[in-house]
Amino acid sequence: MRPDTPAENVDHNAEAARLERTADRYPEDAEALLVQAAAHLELAGDRPAASSLYDRLLAAQDGLENPFLVRALKAANLWEYGHEAEARAIIEGVRAAAPRDPAPWVIVAEALESHDELEQAQETFTQGARVLLTDVPEPPYSTHPLLFGRHRVRRMLGLAHDEWDTLADTLHSSPVSLDELHDPKRVWSLGSDNPAELEAEISRLRAELGTYREALSRPFPVAVLHWPASELSELLAAYPSLESEYPSHEEHLATIEESLRELSSSGTANLGIVSGTVPSYEAFAASEGMSPAEVSLLPQYATTLAARGRAVEWPPQRGTACWCGSGRVYGECHGE
Question: Which of 56, 197, 262, 316 is deepest in the core (most CB within 10 A)?
Fold first, then answer.
C-alpha cells in the first residue's frame, strides 16, 4: 500500500529517508521499501528525488520482482512535473510488454486519465483487461481496480456498456452503483442549491469512502506460507519439532492448495502465497523474541512477508506457472 497521508500531517521526507536506510539493511525487501520511499517523496513534492529512486531500482532491473510496476510509477511521477514525452514513452513500453500484473496497467491508465487523455486511458484499461481476463471465469481480486477504472473512463466518454462493464457492476459491492458513482454529471451537483441533489451526492461520497476503507483494510493478501523443498529440509533439520506441522514436502504443498481453496470458497478475497527462507525466518523469530521452533510464529511470519509485498497472487493467472515451483502450468499441476 502506497501512503496517502497529506504532507501536513506526516514528515514525508523523514519517512522516505527512514525507508531508504531500512532498504540498505534489508536488501531482500529493498524493492518494496524504495517504492514506498518514492511515494513519500512524491507526497512531499520532491518528484525529482522520487524519480531518482525509481531509476535506482530500474538500474538493478534483473533483480526486480515487479519491474513494470516501477516503470509505471516512474511514468506517472514524471508526467506530474513536466516530463510528458518521457512519461508517454514509458507508458507505451509498459503497454507493449503486456505485463501479467494488473497494477502497472491501472497506474499508466490512470496517469493518462488524470491528464484528460480519456481515449488512451480507455484503450489502456481495455488492453489490460484483454490480457488478464480473457477466458478467465472469475476475475482475481487484484484485477477489480482495472475493471472499475475502465468502467469509470467509459462512462465519462459516454460509451455504451459492454460485458466487462456489466462484470464491473457485478463485482462492485457498494450500495451505490458504479453507474451512479461514475456519472460525469456529478461535478455539477457539488454546486447545486437543490438539497436533494446535495444529499444524493453526500450518499455517493460516503459509499466511495466505504469502498476505499474496505480496500485499505486489507492492503496486502491473506497469505499462506510456502517452503520450497530445499528450505523445508533445512528448516526441519534445524528445528525437528516442526515435523508435526510438515510431515512431507508433498503434503505441505497439498495443504497449501487445500487451505487456499477453502478460504476462497468461504468468500475470502485477495489470497496469496509467500515463500519462506530459513535465514529470513530465523531473523524474524529473533525480532519477535521467540524460538523458530514455535509453530504459532509461522502464520505471523507469513503475514509479515505479505505486508512486505512478498506475496504471489493465488490462483495464478491463466496459463502461468504453478506457485509450487514445479515449472508446470498451474492448471496442469496444483490447479487440476
Answer: 316
Please report how many Cα atoms fall inside a 13 Å half-sphere around the Cα of residue 97, on the Cβ side: 19
Is the alpha carbon torsion for 252, 254, 260, 265 positive or negative?
negative
What count of Cα atoms within 13 Å lies in the side-chain half-sphere of residue 111? Answer: 29
Please state the pTM of the whole predicted model.
0.66
State pLDDT tens for residues 55-80. 999 987 667 888 999 999 999 999 99
The CB-side HSE value for 211 (13 A sphere, CA atoms) comes to 18
